[in-house]
Write a structure and sequence with these properties.
It is a single chain. This protein is α/β, with parallel strands linked by helices. Helices cover 29% and strands 31% of the residues. The chain contains 10 helices and 21 strands. It has helices at 2-21, 26-47, 49-52, 173-180, 207-213, 242-265, 294-298, 309-312, 330-341, 360-370, and strands at 53-59, 63-65, 70-78, 86-91, 98-100, 111-120, 125-129, 131-137, 144-148, 153-158, 165-166, 185-195, 217-223, 228-233, 270-273, 281-284, 319-325, 345-353, 375-381, 387-389, 396-397. The strands form 6 sheets. It has a 7-stranded mixed beta sheet, with helices on both faces. Strand 15 (270-273) and strand 16 (281-284) form a beta hairpin. The protein is elongated.
């Protein structure tokens, strides 16, 4: 572009000198006027480009799992008689997505030019896919103009679950019995005895007493109301560059997806809170499909200015709190200690990026929580072995 302009400038100066410096000026003025007309023609061609070039975009699917390829087709129609040899396409989210396919070289007159690309995203989220803008160049390379893209398309990228994940709540007799029986019966405590019926499980038979009486006697176990489990995703704003930020958020959401699947499979009454309790909250149906949470998890925004931990720690009733955090400071640690003081069970997953330096203050706060019996799991996004467990931990990624 710059080279073409320099050549044209010297040609224009040379034609002007030829027209003015010689007695026969017809040839000089002819060249000068021709160059001026050419300059006007090139300028007019880029001015008319927005009305001449029409963009069409299509995408094979609007939903995909992270890393799953999706076909995207871009068509540019040149409805005018002008040639645009240089067409540079700029796409939305080019820094995050993977895009395979050949780019445009130019647009010939009265023709449509199509290119098919394969796009994929390595992280969950709701992304704008398509042409953000086009930069066109006239046929002599003197002028450029940027044109806005067409109607942008939206691709929802679902998260994946963390491989080998197993969520273990703090072990006590009630928890152990609960995870073994969906009827919330404590097998360590017998409430009364009665005659056995065919509908009873064999584990309820009191074999010694049945042998003495000569008939099958069944045990009624003491029932209990299990503690509610709360999955707390702290959607605090993460101050990192675009790619490490997306990678860290994606790792947190993958752990949440795995925890939802674990709680549903284990028939644990669970709530997911990702902001203001009661507003940014949903209940996990043990009989429901885990996939129903994918649209919610894909669209979660990590944009809170203040942590929501201190709100959840004041919820009434007994519960097991599993907190997924990207940061811990004095205020957050105080709120978590308050939850422990009310005899709430607490598991922490603290996520960080490999690009972040070590934080001695966070290390100190985590140690103070461990001394209270809190299970702490450290997860570093971007590393193959992301879970680093302390010896006293009881939960984490297997």
């Amino acid at each position: 572009m710059l080279k073409s302009r320099i050549i044209f400038f010297f040609a224009l100066v040379g034609a002007a000198m030829l027209a003015i410096g010689y007695s026969d000026t017809r040839a000089g003025f002819t060249i000068l006027y021709s160059l001026l007309i050419l300059l006007a023609f090139c300028a007019l061609s880029v001015i008319l480009a927005p009305g001449v070039l029409k963009v069409e975009e299509k995408m094979a699917a609007s939903i995909a799992f992270k890393g799953e390829p999706v076909s995207y087709t871009l068509t540019i129609h040149n409805r005018g008689p002008l040639l645009y040899p240089g067409v540079a396409c700029h796409f939305h989210n080019a820094g995050l997505m993977t895009m395979e396919g050949s780019l445009f070289g130019g647009c010939q007159p009265f023709r449509g030019h199509s290119r098919e690309f394969v796009v994929s995203f390595p992280y969950r989220g709701i992304y704008t896919v398509g042409l953000e803008k086009i930069t066109v160049t006239d046929m002599f390379g003197l002028f450029t103009r940027t044109i806005g893209g067409g109607n942008a398309l939206t691709l929802t990228v679902y998260p994946e679950r963390e491989d080998g994940f197993a969520l273990s709540l703090r072990n006590d007799p009630q928890d152990a019995s609960f995870h073994q029986d969906i009827f919330n019966e404590d097998y360590s405590t017998i409430a009364d005895l009665r005659k056995y019926t065919p509908a009873d499980s064999l584990r309820k038979i009191h074999w010694k007493l049945s042998a003495k009486r000569g008939e099958l006697i069944a045990k009624n176990f003491q029932s209990f109301e299990p503690d509610k489990t709360i999955l707390l995703l702290d959607t605090l704003k993460i101050d990192l560059p675009a790619r490490p930020k997306a990678e860290l958020e994606d790792k947190m959401v993958a752990y949440i997806a795995s925890s939802i699947e674990f709680c549903a499979r284990s028939k644990i009454p669970t709530s997911l809170i990702y902001g203001q309790p009661g507003l940014d909250e949903t209940t996990i149906d043990p009989n429901g499909e885990v996939d129903s949470f994918y649209p919610l998890l894909a669209g979660l925004n990590f944009d809170r200015a203040v942590s929501c931990v201190h709100l959840v720690s004041r919820l009434p009733g007994g519960y097991s709190l599993i907190a997924y955090l990207s940061k811990i400071d004095d205020e957050i640690a105080a709120a978590l200690k308050e939850a422990v003081s009310f005899d709430h069970k607490l598991i922490i997953y603290l996520f960080s990026s490999a690009t972040q330096p070590e934080n001695p203050q966070q290390t100190y706060l985590l140690e103070s929580l461990r001394t209270l019996g809190v299970s702490v799991n450290l997860v570093v996004a971007g590393k193959p072995d992301t879970a680093a467990h302390s010896p006293d931990e009881e939960g984490g990624a297997a």
